[in-house]
């Protein structure tokens, strides 16, 4: 379990801020949604998550735990219990090409200066991937020590494993890394690193909105194109949502499923909720169970 938490933490950190931009839709406020109809013999559930929070802010609402208990299987973005996926996670921060070899001398000097604000330097990070650089943003933005951080999906996973539920993922680590690389090349990551303070403010607002289940605020916080442009949104949200929405029906048909995905994947015209409704399912917010 120790390695599971460590590797899950790495992936969650890399994705925390890349999956926050979405369009507002509907009038309901809930981070838990029930999926029924269209031939399903029993309902399934979708929980929007806030990947990482300080323990003082962390809470899994009772309705979420009850929905998990009622479900036959637990489905995350990535299956952290798959040994092959865990190996892929370990490799995602490694690179054969030095960062400095991908930059001009002036750009390398600038990156070295930027990294000083994150407590490191280019020499120490030179053999890291751009995803490793991006993880620095998340680590700096979270306003508590790493030992005080709670990971929403990991806590749900622990409960699923205790009750011996089947665990699976909506995509592979390789798929997620392809999306990230398509959205954020090295120079784009460097631009993101420059906005460290803005991310700290963003995370605080997101956590507060998530705690209140204020999906409208949660899904409109990150619309500044400096954070994520239309092309990046397509790679990180739209394309992945469509892939997931194609896989979810078969999972729900066999047995009830509890899906846990980043909150921003739920809303908008290309959000998972809208895509499932378009397939004929009834998807409604859950206020209590």
TrEMBL record:
<feature type="signal peptide">
    <location>
        <begin position="1"/>
        <end position="22"/>
    </location>
</feature>
<keyword id="KW-0378">Hydrolase</keyword>
<dbReference type="GO" id="GO:0016020">
    <property type="term" value="C:membrane"/>
</dbReference>
<keyword id="KW-0482">Metalloprotease</keyword>
<keyword id="KW-0812">Transmembrane</keyword>
<dbReference type="GO" id="GO:0030178">
    <property type="term" value="P:negative regulation of Wnt signaling pathway"/>
</dbReference>
<keyword id="KW-0472">Membrane</keyword>
<dbReference type="InterPro" id="IPR040230">
    <property type="entry name" value="TIKI1/2-like"/>
</dbReference>
<dbReference type="GO" id="GO:0004222">
    <property type="term" value="F:metalloendopeptidase activity"/>
</dbReference>
<keyword id="KW-0325">Glycoprotein</keyword>
<keyword id="KW-0479">Metal-binding</keyword>
<keyword id="KW-1133">Transmembrane helix</keyword>
<dbReference type="GO" id="GO:0006508">
    <property type="term" value="P:proteolysis"/>
</dbReference>
<dbReference type="GO" id="GO:0046872">
    <property type="term" value="F:metal ion binding"/>
</dbReference>
<protein>
    <recommendedName>
        <fullName>TraB family protein</fullName>
    </recommendedName>
</protein>
<dbReference type="Pfam" id="PF01963">
    <property type="entry name" value="TraB_PrgY_gumN"/>
</dbReference>
<dbReference type="InterPro" id="IPR002816">
    <property type="entry name" value="TraB/PrgY/GumN_fam"/>
</dbReference>
<keyword id="KW-0645">Protease</keyword>
<keyword id="KW-0732">Signal</keyword>
